[in-house]
Amino acid sequence: MSDRGAPPAGAERGPGGHVPAYDEPDLLRDQFRQLLRYRWLIALGIVLGVLGGGWLGVRGADSYTATTEVTVRPLPIDSSSGEKTAPGEISMGSERRTALSTVVAERAARALHTDTGPQRLAADLQVTNPPETRMLRFAYTAPSPRTAARSANAFATAYLDNREKDATNRVTSMVSSYEKQRAPLLKERDRLAEEIASSGKQGALDGTLSAHSSVVNRIAEINGSISDLRAEDTTPGRVVTKATPPAAPAGPGLPLMLGLGAAVGVGLGLLAAWVRLVFDPAVRTPGDVVRALHAPVLGTLPHGRRGSGKRPERRSPSRSLLADGRLAEEYRSVAFRLAYDETFARRRRVLVVPPRGSIGTALAASVNLSASFAEMGKEVLLLEADLRTPSLTERLQQADGVQPGWARAPGHGTIGWPTGHRVPIDAGESGVFDLVPGHRVSKVPRALTSSAVTQLIGHADDRDSVLIVLAPAVLSYADAIALIDRVDCVLIVCDPREVRRDDLARVRELVVGAGGCVLGALLHAEGSGGEPKRRPAPSGPPAPPDRGGPAREGAALRVMVR
Would you say the pTM of this structure is higher than 0.85? Predict the structure, then answer.
């Protein structure tokens, strides 16, 4: 049923009764199914993604982007050192930063005649440099197409004007520097010329002529540098693509953004579900139970206590524990799987316990498994080892006129339990099984470890005998651990939604440490298992059995003949 994907009860077990782990595809499918349990997280991620995509789409629909492209021409003088640069040398990274500077933004603001501050105006500007080019692309985003085009062109023009002004200023500065260097040389040239004119000696004249010639040559070099600088082309570049008002908004469009937002939302939702799953200690699937117990899921009890879907008739307390319909068939299926399990077949005794909490469903499971084994022709003894809150005596119907079967009374003990307590139980059409009911004692551990209990458990070694022991929760009391060394096999009855993975792992450690083996797990949900909410036990004697059914009389007769 719901134990799909779990190894069967008769599967080959490894050391310590381990069941082989899932294959990787099974694990992936199991994890994906677990992720789908958090559909609200996935749905929340999709909603947030769609809202974010819609916001971006609407925001992009109200904005337009215009682009202007300019080519940058290398200038003859480096802006930092004031020296001539090599032909074709230019730093596009520096030019891009200059285009985004406040100086250029101030020029653009003056050209646009706007009161917006330079920094706020430049916030909507993007300047990029296509790889392997000397081109700058000015992209400006604005609420209207015309404003976007005017602003892009204004920034491009402001950048070129600023670059040209810088080049002109650098040329003027260099020319002024050369002229300052030339002024003293001109005075020196004039002085030497006067000396040559007034000198009459040939030797003195030769030295003056040599100095005059050197000064003249130096003046000529400076004049040549000045001429070269004044002849340099300081054109900063040119506009190759002028911005025009765009016809469509800049964004990718509302439908595309909604689709992208939904895709991103699915990813975020799955990530959130996975994180929630990783940190969730609860058992969510039968696979979690298998991996925690290293034992198979023998069955899952269906929801509801009735298989027919009709309104149930009012029943006696014993009939409320005995299942019918789909629920009874599930118990029979579990009993058959246990009967053909090699580990159980060697000892034919099983301890039915919950991990923690209420014993209600485990109680109903032990009663119905006893009835199922009795229906298979086994001599069944149900031992109620719950000595703290015993209740089976008041809740099960005795089979009047039928003596106990194979369960022989052990010798007298000192505790008073289980000495002298044997009750044949009428299981309806399934037959009759024997019950050793529990009752409150002052020393529970001493009673459970007594020789009388050991002798009683030993009767399961008889042929066609089955012993089912009901004990309190493993993690609540040590009663079950005290019985494991003699019962050996353990059946865990739990609700996957209420138990934690570390609880199941702890139960397995306790069972294996005490020398037992976990046969498997019986899963149930709230409202399943045939166990209603407990009510106060009736103060009067139990109701007399219904003798009207020939099938019940035949079952009792068969037990008496045996």
Answer: no
Convert 120-138 into a string of H (helix), E (strand) and C (coil).
Answer: HHHCCEEEECCCCCCEEEE
Highest average pLDDT, of 202-216, 225-239, 393-407, 505-519, comes from 505-519
Does residue 171 contact residue 230 with C-beta atoms inside 8 Å? yes
Query: Residue 432: is it exposed, middle or buried by C-beta count within 10 angstroms (0-12/13-18/19+)?
Result: buried
Tokens at 56, concatenated: 């971006």
Task: Map residue 500 onto helix, strand or coil.
Answer: strand
Query: pLDDT over 70 for what percent of the chain?
Result: 76
Residues 6+ apart with CB under 8 A from 175: 226, 229, 230
21 to 12, 292, 428, 501, 508: CA distances (angstroms):
12, 11, 41, 16, 16
382: phi then psi, degrees, rounded to nearest 5: -105, 115
Report the half-sphere exposure of 313 (CA within 13 A, side-chain side): 4
Q: Is the dihedral of CA 167, 170, 176, 180 positive or negative?
A: negative
Q: What's the full length of the chain, in residues? A: 562
pLDDT digits (tens, 9 = 90+) for 63-120: 788 999 999 988 766 544 445 555 557 888 889 999 999 999 999 999 988 888 888 8
What is the distance between the terminal CA atoms of the chain, rounded to a whole angstrom? 35
Question: What interhelical angle do 325-339 and 360-375 show, nearest 10?
Answer: 70
H or E stretch covering 68:
strand 64-72
**How far is it, in rounded angstroms, from Cα 151 to Cα 242?**
11
Instruction: Check if the beta carbon of residue 426 is closer than 8 Å to that of residue 552.
Output: yes
What's the mean per-residue pLDDT of the chain? 77
CA separation for the pair 320, 304 (Å, rounded) = 13
Contact 383/469 with Cβ under 8 angstroms? yes
- Show the beta-strand stretches assigned E in 198-346: 237-241, 297-300
